Amino acid sequence: MTVVNADAGDIVSGVVREDHRPGYSLPRAAYTDADVFASDIERVFLRTWLFVAASAEVPAGAYAAWSVGGESVVLTRTADSVLHAHHNVCRHRGSRLLDDGGGRARTIVCGYHSWTYGLDGALRAAGDMGEGFRERCGGELGLRPVHVREAAGLVFVCFAGQPPPFDGAAAAIADQLGPHEIDSAEVIARFRYRVAANWKTLIENNRECYHCRPNHPEFCLSNYELGVNGDGRIDPGYEEEFARQRAEWRAQGLSEKQVSFPGGDFYRVARLPLRDGFETESLTGRLVAPLLGRLTRPRTGSVRVVTLPNSWSHVNADYAVTTRLTPVNAGTTDVDVTFLVRGGATEGVDYDTDEVVAVWKETSEQDWELCERNFAGVSSRGYLPGPLSPVTENSIADFHEWWFRQSEPD
Ligand code: FES
Ligand code: FE
Q: pTM, whole model, 2 decimals?
């Protein structure tokens, strides 16, 4: 359990910032120091919007629980399709109600003394509490709500009392993901990893494709290395192909608008071209599952949604893959990688799970190994912050600025 140091925020905005040279990787303490990690939980993770799950992971009559930084949220969806988010804390004496994970449920029953809540969070039953106990308690003993927003099939929560704005992210995500209708997709595979690296190491790795060519042979079959925001490499072939594919997207009514961390905000949404001949991120180039949602043609490129500090998703014509980071301590991050295909599709008939996951299971695992090696070196006394490439790693520098801003004390 992390104990939050009241001055933890100052270590980032003071000590770490003072030691930081813009355009370089961060000082070692930013990745390894327990007080910095405490600040990250308190000032970054518990103040911002966090990706929890795909909407499809919480259908009506189901729940999904997720713990992060000493907090825990339970998502539920009632029969009227309304999504709810509550603190995973019993209103009797505060027990944790549900373990992380998900499933079907009619009610939520506390394991301690069996207080029972509806999926809407209302207290339904509490035995042996004496006559008129609800009135004695002011009548309000439902689970306490957590801020929650759904954006075109992705669910985000915020534990802060006053969440930062979300409408811009919701609009940008809906603009791109709307036609893919991943809210009606279904999960076909989940992979959970415990990665021995700081969460920022994983974000930094995601924010550049400098490492792609030497490390991601499967990814590079379908993807250009270009397309990460701030990557300044020029490739006339890419530009030509991008222009051609944008015209195809327009003809299908798909948005081609790229939104990259506007005004330093937490989200990026972009539809990127796949290599000529590739309909999706697969090993063969061919679709590996039925078209998603309202799509009628396979040439849709690949939509990327990145939300700081804890997620990225790729949404192709035929499948979506979400990645969620859960920081555990300064040197440990849990990662959940979840694959979705069109709702109602049948394994063995419409798709083969191994084919759907082939590129992104392999690529993700390659990334975790890279991150662990990176973190091991950064943890060493031999580490000195090194220069970021002004050609390929600008998005890392932007992330650092975002992190410093988030880390400022109130
Ligand atoms: Fe939940 Fe007692 S703490 S029923
Ligand atoms: Fe990678």
A: 0.96
Test site for ligand 1: of 97, 115, 116, 144, most ligand atoms within 8 A of the Cβ: 115
In 252-343, alpha helices (H): none
Q: Which atom of ligand 1 is nearest to the CA of 113?
A: 4
SS3 38: helix
- Residue 93 beta carbon below 6 angstroms from any ligand 1 atom: yes
CA 89 to ligand 1 center in whole angstroms = 9
- Name the closest ligand to CA 92: 1
The residue whose CA has the least distance to atom 2 of ligand 1 is 113
Q: Which residues contact 176 (CB under 8 A, 6 or more apart)?
A: 152, 254, 255, 257, 269, 270, 271, 303, 305, 315
Query: Ligand 1 atom closest to Cα of 90?
Result: 1
Per-residue pLDDT of the chain in tens (410 residues, 90 and over written 9): 444 454 555 788 777 888 999 999 999 999 999 999 999 999 999 999 999 999 999 999 999 999 999 999 999 999 999 999 999 999 999 999 999 999 999 999 999 999 999 999 999 999 999 998 988 888 789 999 999 999 999 999 999 999 999 999 999 999 999 999 999 999 999 999 999 999 999 999 999 999 999 999 999 999 999 888 899 998 999 999 999 999 999 999 999 899 999 999 999 999 999 999 999 999 999 999 999 999 999 989 999 999 999 999 999 999 999 999 999 999 999 999 999 999 999 999 999 999 999 999 999 999 999 999 999 999 999 999 999 999 999 999 999 999 999 999 88
Pairing mode of beta strands 71-77, 83-87: antiparallel
ipTM score for this prediction: 0.98
Residue 135 φ/ψ, nearest 5 degrees: -65, -40
* 206 C-alpha to ligand 2 centroid (Å): 6
Please give the Cα distance from 201 to 195 (Å, whole number).
Answer: 10
Ligand nearest, relative to CA of residue 209 = 2
Q: Mapping DSSP to helix (H, G, I), strand (E, B) and coil, where does residue 334 land?
A: strand
Which residue's CA is the nearest one to ligand 1's atom 3? 93
